[in-house]
Amino acid sequence: MNLSKLSRRAFKLAATSTIMALASGAAIADDNLTIGVVAKIGGIPWFNAMESGIEEKAEQLGVNGFMVGPTSADPALQVRAIEDMIAQGVDVIGVVPNDAQVLEPVLARAREQGIIVLTHESPDQQNVDWNFELASAQGFGEAYGERLAELMDGSGQYAVFVGGLSVPLHNAWADAAIAYIEDNHPDMSVVGDRYGVAEDVDASRRTALDLMRANDDLGGVLAFGSQGPIGAARAVAERRLSGDVVVLGPFSPGQGRRLLHDGVLSGGFMWNPKQAGEVFVTLGTLLANGETLESGMEIEGLGVIDPDVDSRNIIVDQLIEINSETVDELAALGL
């Protein structure tokens, strides 16, 4: 561990009462503490909301917090951003990985320098202090499998999009959704393999158009990745197949509400990406100040936690349903 960072952190240790006040959201000035977060991709509503959460919580807690959004969902760009943060000497690095395995070496280097590493949407990540999730993979995937089957009347073909074939959480959601459908709706089947396009709205649209051309009886698209539902819904609108092809998936309400109100996008479930940004800062500040996470501890944004020390996961379930009754209110919150 880097000795300068070790001594700096030792100097930052606060009394237990102060630490717990921070956990509950009270501000504590720590101008020297810097937290950098690397998003999957910059400039899209989901990660814009996350950036707002990072900046607002950092201001509240009196720390330095910022987000870097790569120009595409290329894991090499995330590696480069993390390397830059290591060179800057930040205290905490947060990442929403595009490829967990590609990031392992650079995250290991960060930890060797005494930098705390947090991830989100990457429950099997190696070389991490903690990964946190605002929804369990099993529950999230099964909720989508159940809803898709309901909207397709339990029969027909459907396609599955993920943000990338090497994005662990997206594929875990897909596994859970497919398994639920296979166990409960034998008249439903997956078209082809899953498609790693759901972090690119144009690629999702093109893939959906190709699938509808090749499969006249395609009845649904299940897209895990914030741009997948938007692109697939636009394709359905182009083909004038609204009502015939169901599109489900997590998306930013502000980006998708018109498609939902038009009946092209069928809705979905999500968690609040702004809240995830806040958790990066709250959790990073706690850990940088020497706090040990324990079962039963209450942390703002996560609630009461039961951290898995072996897997380094903190998983809670805080799903929000996106439908015609909730989408405008969610969009008004900047999501």
Automatic annotation (TrEMBL):
InterPro entries, alphabetized: Bact_Solute-Bind_Prot2 (IPR050555), Peripla_BP_I (IPR028082), SBP_2_dom (IPR025997)
Keyword presence, Cell cycle: no
Keyword Signal: yes
Principal cellular location given in the protein's record: periplasm
Signal peptide: 1-29
Subcellular location: Periplasm
Domain Periplasmic binding protein: 35-291
Keywords: Signal
Molecular function per GO: carbohydrate binding
Alphabetical GO biological process terms: transmembrane transport
Source domain of life: Bacteria
Record-linked Pfam families: Peripla_BP_4 (PF13407)
GO CC annotation, single: outer membrane-bounded periplasmic space
UniProt record similarity statement: Belongs to the bacterial solute-binding protein 2 family.
Protein's recorded name: Sugar ABC transporter substrate-binding protein
